[in-house]
Sequence to fold (151 residues):
Amino acid sequence: MEEQKDQPMDREKLTEGLTLLGRKVTEPVRKLETFPNLHPGRRYVVTLETSEFTCVCPMTGQPDFATITIRYIPDQRILESKSLKLYLWSYRNEGVFHEHVVNQILDDLVKALDPLYCEVVGRFNVRGGIAITVEAKYERPEESVEKRDQG
Fold:
């Protein structure tokens, strides 16, 4: 018998594959975990934001602080927020330029989620008198959506 949409999904099925949520983690982990989207036919936006992102300048080693905002339209998968927290923490001591880290975060999110749309905005605090904002966007090509729906 086919599962009805208005009935809740089995908890074990919903949390299958989640290894970080509900566990004590004391080190950063560069692993994005996801769980099933129970509303894949609906276009809705998920927004995640943190003002606690840090990385370091690859030339000077000086810390860089930023607010990272992620917006995405999910398809089949949703991003688990604790894994995102640990993933972002993994950049804390990494030497990386602002432009590269924002694009790397976007690439990793797209790989983990296969979303319909995703954008990452990094608003880096002023350093040396200059504030830098980097915006990177991904939109799944229409033909990919059509092929998936047909196949």
Q: What stands out?
A: DSSP finds four helices and six strands in the chain. Residues 32-150 form a domain with the GTP Cyclohydrolase I, domain 2 fold (CATH 3.30.1130.10). The longest helix spans residues 98-113. The chain has a mean pLDDT of 87.
